[in-house]
Amino acid sequence: MSLSILAVDDSKTMRDMIALTLNAAGMTTTLAEDGVHGVETLEAMEPPDAIISDINMPRLDGFGFIEAVRAREAFKGTPILVLTTESGADLKARARSAGASGWIVKPFDPEKLVRALKMVAG
Amino acid sequence: MTDQLDPLAEIKASFFIECDELLEALQDGLETMDSPERSAETINVVFRAVHSIKGGAGAFGLNDLVNFAHCYESVLDNVRSGLLEPNTEIMRTFFQAGDILQDLVRLSRDELPIEPSLTAATLTDLEALLSDEVEETVEFAPLVLSFDLDEDFGLDDAAPKPAQHSFTFQASAELYASGNEPAKLFRALTELGTVTCTPDLTKLPNLSELANAECFIPWHISVDTDRTFEDVLEVFDFVDGLCTIEQIAPQTDALLPPIDLPDVANIAEPIAPAPGHIEEATDVKPAEQLSTEPDSKKVAAPKATVRVDVDRIDRLVNLVGELVINQSMLSQSIVSAQAANSTEVETGLEEFMRLTRDIQDSVMMIRAQPVKSLFQRMSRIVRESSAAVKKSVKLITEGDDTEVDKTVIERLADPLTHMIRNAVDHGLEAAETRVANGKAEQGVVRLRAAHRSGRVVIEVSDDGRGINRDRVKQIAIDKGLIPENVLLSDTEIDNLLFMPGFSTAAEVSNLSGRGVGMDVVRSAIQSLGGRITITSVPGQGTTFSISLPLTLAVLDGMVIDVAGQSVVMPLAAISETMMLGPDELKPLGANSMLVQVRERFLPLIDLAEKLGFSPKRTDFKNCIALLIANDDGQEAAIVIDAIQDQRQVVIKGLQDAYGNIPGVAAATILGDGKIALILDPGDIVVRGIDHTDTAQPQSA
Amino acid sequence: MDQKTPSQTGREIELLSFKVNDQEYSLNIMSVREIRGWSKATPLPHSPPYMQGVINLRGSVLPIVDLSIRFGLAEREVSPRDVIIVVNVDEQTVGLLVDAVVDILSINTDAIDPPPEMGDNTTRFVDGLIIQNDRMIRLLSLKAAVPAKETNVA
Question: Dihedrals φ, ψ of B601, to 5°?
């Protein structure tokens, strides 16, 4: 079972790292570079099993992106993890209010990322 | 195992390239913030740039960079949330922090040690701007990629205490809305040990009350595992607050007897929210409308780009250069073989020529980059040098998006740095002097770039004191560079600055140090196939004008005969060609000749003699002359034997093969396979007229 | 015939030997990139007399040094049968104009004698001497023979 993941981050370095990590774990990764591109990519692809998104991005940030995703019927229940550098209480509140399913703290531990994705994506 | 290191090294290299782009965006953003054009989006741009650098740096364990970036980012975050309003002082700190960040990136990339003294002062300034809450040092985990997939992801070292944890679990509607699913959570539980899930069907409402999105059924879950209850709860981390979990004490009768029910999965499915019925469908806005307000300065949508290895481009450029030469050689061969008489062949050749030129143009444009990054570097030089000599200086740039070959940009950095430092250090007067002379207290250094008649012109000017010609001349005499009582024009005096061994730094200042002279600057420019000239007005300022070839590869030239040799004169320099009649030739003294062109008199230069190919002619009647005009207005009539034709030639540098040759800019390969020299008309004119200089003897 | 003396310290190297005027010189073959027939060079303005000019070597500019003039030997006519030995010196590629290529020799470095006073102007261009039967083969010092790049600017 190869999980298909959509990863949205404006930093090429981050995108490359995520792709490297996920592909090595046997997942398929599709990349987008900001919220707008993320929505466009999402609509053009086979629905992914899960989405990871950065928060600070140009054009449309993480919150706006998740909001846009959740507004689409087909993706109401899609697991979404936010990539964030925040920690502690702020973190849960932020992620929660964004409509995310969970979070990954940057810089990310590859094992945690894979595990989290496997859990939420099933 | 080393295979896994390689992709990471590649990503790391790519990260540093990305940092350059981010640093440029940071600089841009800071400058916009400092100008009336700033908008709400500007601070976001600046914040994101620092944030992204921090993120990547963290992944590679670049501690110093992360810590500095984190501090900077925190201050920027305060600006972003309106807690801090940037004033001049704060902006200065921001600019400085940007410069330090650049240094840290560079040192990190080159794996050089980072002295605390580099960041100490700026960190103090930044920390002073933070609110009372003390920022903790960032904890991060350096990236350790282990791709051993046989490893069981998720099993940490457990304290072996087998136990059974039991609890009830009830999901709320929000849990589903967040994209989580009890089934997946339960499945994750199975990684910890044996799991038994029992739905409490007594809580099932009537069908009519069944709302798809809510799970009315609580579950009783027990997990047999070595792990603690906390470990079990960890699985529910993401849904903390979106569900209710109550631990059941182990020996209690509250445990319901397991009901014989079909598989967990089957139950879970129908309860999963069916699309369409829960919340009101919000209008799905088209993605573009959701974009944040674009920055007023520049378009936000990124152009599609591809990153290419510079080596590959260079190779392509060389190959295309060969193609052009080959095409020209082929044309020549066909003409010689008299096979060009067929119109088909002729048309084919023309088409071929057109295509190769188009390819060449396109390929050259790949290497072209706007000078903006170079000018931004100079921004920093101005900041640093003006601070060092305690002068207030402003840098104004024009033509930032003028495109120039990448190599040229790299090789211009040093010469421009020298010139700007000189301008700030020597060109601009102290504040009091300026005010006393009716000038604004703040000195202005201007950097201008433009395309002009097939070349790139870059000007560095200041509004300072101008060149003190008496002093310059005296210094040159003192240093034995010119004889005592020679008469020199203003331009000639100005050009003394370019002579090796000349330096006007009377005091040793912080900047000039060794007093690197303008001669080094000029060599650097010349090695690019360029030219540099000075104009100056005492009391008003000095301007250096650099003229560079547009591309390093191709030139429109006129192929001419000189003493039996074919040489190429750049077309851009030629203003006219004429046949010299007896009326137009006017002797000047014993050795010189002037040519009258309408109302002007131009000095005559015997090209064959100047190149050392033949002794000086005595009779110039009926010779052909090319009228050459320099960038700085100097004109001359250059006598040649004959004009062959006009064509575009591929430039081959002579620097690597041979070195500098006076009067010669480069070489090319003609259709017959022979090398022809490409002349430097500016150099020829200067040498032709210059009283003090003749060709120096070559080193043996 | 090569005189191969078994030795304990020296190593085997290969030399390309060639004629300049009537003298025989040699070069370590590792420095030699290729050997070409003569082609007419484009003269360079104000260049030293030994600088023949430049030729087109497959799209690159190759300066040609006339060794006979460089060594200060008697003047001779450049002949179409002359040979150009393309060599690498430091980071430069240069063509040496010589009369003819003679031989490729395998010799042991032990067999190279230090250069004596040559009695003509060639002393500084010679790194060593090899005596083979009655042939005196001068080992060319490329560093001395190939002039450094022109850095003249003024």
Answer: -115, 120
Q: Which residues on chain B are in Cβ contact (under 8 Å) with A11?
A: 18, 52, 55-56
The reply to whether B469 and B391 lie within a common domain is yes
User: Does B50 score more than 90 pLDDT?
Assistant: yes
Q: How far is B356 from chain A (nearest CA, A)?
A: 36
Mean pLDDT of the region B344-359:
83
**Average per-residue pLDDT for chain C:** 83
Residue B585's φ and ψ, nearest 5 degrees, are -95, 125
- % of chain B surpassing 70 pLDDT: 79
Phi, psi dihedral angles at B515 (to 5 degrees): 65, 55
B639-687 pLDDT, tens digit each: 999 998 888 787 777 766 677 778 888 888 887 778 899 988 877 887 7
A99 vs chain B: nearest CA distance in angstroms?
5
Contact yes or no for B52 and A103 at CB 8 A: no
**pLDDT digits over B463-487, tens only?**
998 888 888 888 888 888 788 887 8
What element of type H or E holds B472? helix B469-478
Q: Which domain holds residue B51?
A: 7-131
**Domain C11-144: assigned CATH number:** 2.40.50.180
- Pick from A71-80, B372-381, B493-502: least confident: B493-502
Q: Are residues B516 and B560 in the same domain?
A: no
Going by pLDDT thresholds of 50, 70 and 90, the confidence category of residue C7 is low
- Contact check, Cβ <8 Å, C55/B675: yes
Amino acid identity for residue B363 in this structure: V
Chain B residues with CB-CB distance to C149 below 8 A: 658-659
Which of A13, A56, A72 minimises the CB distance to B14?
A13
Which CATH number goes with the domain that contains B320? 1.10.287
Counting residues of chain B whose pLDDT is more than 90, the rounded percentage is 14
Q: Are residues B512 and B564 in the same domain?
A: no
Residues B59 and B194 in one domain: no
- Give the whole-angstrom CA distance, residue B232 versus residue B198: 17
Q: Give the fold, CATH level 3, of A4-121.
A: Rossmann fold (3.40.50)
Chains B and C touch (3+ CB pairs under 8 A): yes
CA B600/CA B226 separation, integer angstroms: 102
Q: How many domains does chain B have?
A: 5
Question: Kind of pairing, strands A50-54 and C51-57?
Answer: unpaired
- The tally of CA atoms less than 13 A away on the side-chain side of residue B675 is 29
- A58: nearest CB among B48, B145, B283: B48
Q: Is residue B295 part of a domain?
A: no
- Spell out which residues of chain C touch residue B322, defining contact as CB-CB under 8 Å: 59
